[in-house]
Design goal:
Number of strands: 0
Helix content: over 70%
Number of domains: 2
Number of helices: 4
Radius of gyration: 17 Å
Low-confidence stretches: none
Shape: globular
Structural class: mainly alpha
Largest sheet: none
Length: 135
């Protein structure tokens, strides 16, 4: 197996691993905040923010191993990350509406299809746009 294939396999495994951890962070944060605030919208928002920050840090440091040279570049990178995640959030919502309302698909099968699409898009945005290797 070539070095490039091994590196990509390692990267995908780490991406999936930290994706699962991000989901765990989201759920734990949601339930902790919900217990304190009793407001599911507030709890969802805080959990989403914490999960995004966790995902950014773990993707940057462990998955794509990207070093950033300045605070300006770090902020640009983080904004790219937030923007891409906001885009895939809309893909998620619009995909669910399209599949359920217009194609009469079930909610669970629609969520599975849309989530697979979102995971692939998030990986591609991270790999090719946010944390791309510099030349």
């Amino acid at each position: 197996m070539s070095i490039a294939v091994r590196r990509m396999s390692r990267e995908l495994i780490l991406y999936i691993f930290f994706g699962v951890l991000t989901t765990v962070v989201n759920f734990i944060t949601y339930f902790l905040i919900l217990k304190i605030s009793k407001n599911y919208v507030f709890a969802t928002t805080i959990a989403f923010i914490i999960a995004i920050i966790f995902a950014y840090i773990t993707n940057k440091k462990y998955v794509f191993e990207k070093k950033t040279s300045s605070l300006k570049n770090l902020l640009k990178e983080f904004i790219k990350f937030l923007t891409s995640r906001a885009f895939t959030y809309f893909v998620d919502v619009l995909g669910m509406i399209f599949l359920i309302k217009y194609l009469s698909q079930g909610e669970i099968s629609s969520k599975i299809i849309v989530n697979i699409t979102v995971i692939i898009l998030n990986y591609l945005f991270s790999k090719l746009y946010i944390f791309k290797a510099e030349k």
